[in-house]
Specification:
Strands 1, 2, 3 and 4 form a four-stranded antiparallel beta sheet that branches. Helix content is about 35%, strand content about 30%. It is of the alpha+beta class. Strand 3 (about 80) and strand 4 (about 85-95) form a beta hairpin. It contains two helices and four strands. The chain is globular, with a radius of gyration of 14 Å. The protein has helices at about 5-20, 50-65, and strands at about 30-40, 70-75, 80, 85-95.
Length: about 100
């Protein structure tokens, strides 16, 4: 993992501290959290979106470290673009 990736991971850890405030207490019921992120447009047709991947993976990892169970993840990447960036909504269903 490169230095840039480490910075993304550190930023995602900081974001998790903000997101954590909205997580429901563990009560064996299913809950959701919606995370809005921006992604660059893909110019060559296919590539790994490393920033988005590292951010969401780090948030999920932190949730699991805090004892939450990830049930499912849903992604809405409807073409809403701003300045060559696309909005991605990630819905995490957890217990």
């Amino acid at each position: 993992m490169g230095l840039f990736d480490k910075n993304i991971e550190k930023s995602a850890n900081n974001n998790y501290e903000e997101i954590k405030k909205y997580l429901k207490p563990k009560d064996d019921k299913k809950h959701i959290i919606m995370i809005n992120t921006m992604s660059k447009s893909v110019t060559n047709g296919w590539e790994c979106e490393n920033k988005y991947t590292l951010q969401i993976d780090t948030i999920m990892e932190n949730m699991q470290n805090d004892g939450y169970e990830i049930i499912d993840i849903k992604i809405d990447s409807t073409n809403q673009s701003v300045a060559n960036m696309f909005l991605i909504r990630t819905l995490i269903i957890y217990k």
